[in-house]
Amino acid sequence: MDTHRATELLIEYSKGKRDAIEDLLPLIYDELRRVASNYLRRERSDHTLQPTALVNEAYLKMVDITQVSWQNKAHFIGVAANQMRRILIDHARQHNAQKRGGEFHILTLNEEIDKAADETTDLIELDEALNELAKLDPVKAQIVELRYFGGLTMDEAAEVLDVSTITVKRHWKMTKAWLYGRLAKQ
Predict the structure, then answer these.
(1) What are the residues whose beta carbons fall under 8 Å from the beta carbon of 179, sequence distance 6 or more?
(2) Which of 40, 65, 134, 152 could form an SS bridge with 146, CB 3.0 to 4.6 Å?
(3) pLDDT, tens digit, for every residue of 147-159?
(4) Beta strands per DSSP E along 7-152
């Protein structure tokens, strides 16, 4: 099974076996590309990054992380989703700096996941809200990142966070309401 083998390779990599990472990419590439596609689907249509480039950039950052003790494939995918978000935020900030205060990249919070919100917000404002939420409750911020940006299911997010699916569902419901209220103030 690919998930089991990926977990074995990540544990080996954490223990210092550097060549294990070379065998990992073929096992997780499709899932990383799915996460990247989820992110980019919410970006402007003329975005210069493509899913493959986003995966490659995030993966390069991931293999440079040596202080992490990888628990399993889901843990790696969760951290990769975070890296992809950071890459896109940096890209958006650079783009906006070049435009000298031009329009931000609009994304909708009600796409597929959040049916309750019909307001739009930009990626940078959402990132700021998530950073604020992370200070208040890091687990809830991770759930947003994994579900909304990473495209993970409730079960997958629960596995990454090592909590029950019911806990993720409860936090997800509260967090959507908090984000809606926070972003509506903008």
Answers:
(1) 109, 117, 126, 129, 133, 144
(2) 152
(3) 877 777 899 888 8
(4) 106-108, 120-122
Tally of structural domains, the chain: 1
- 120-122 and 106-108 as β-strands: parallel, antiparallel, unpaired? antiparallel
Structural domain span for residue 160 = 2-184
Distance of CA 45 to the CA centre of its chain: 19
Which of the residue ranges 17-21, 56-60, 100-104 would you say has the lowest mean pLDDT?
100-104
| pTM exceeding the 0.70 threshold for the entire prediction | no
